[in-house]
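Q: How would the structure tokens look for this protein?
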Amino acid sequence: MSRITLPKENDEWIIGEKRTIVWDTEGIPPNTTITGDIVLGYLQGNTNDKHFNYDNPIAKNVPITAGSVTVTVPVVEAHGTYVIEAFGDPESISPRFIIKPA
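A: Here is the predicted structure in token form.
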């Protein structure tokens, strides 16, 4: 559906910062009214097992045609590696990135 292009692999986000999430809108009809949530997840250890926080999206009701959204990096436990999922689509997963304390 929508490939996430930002954050990039190994980007470093700082808790409390404003950061922009970007996804590819190519092929999405401009009159599409689909909206969805952007959720943060983490990977534990060296696994590919993703733990998403669906109960607390970092952005809600985002139009898929927008192509980007700016969020405030939330306070998170230190898990090391994070990913973002967009619009409930398991194919719309960001590259792995890092969140650090302020």
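The mean pLDDT is 91.

The radius of gyration is 13 Å.

Upvote if useful.
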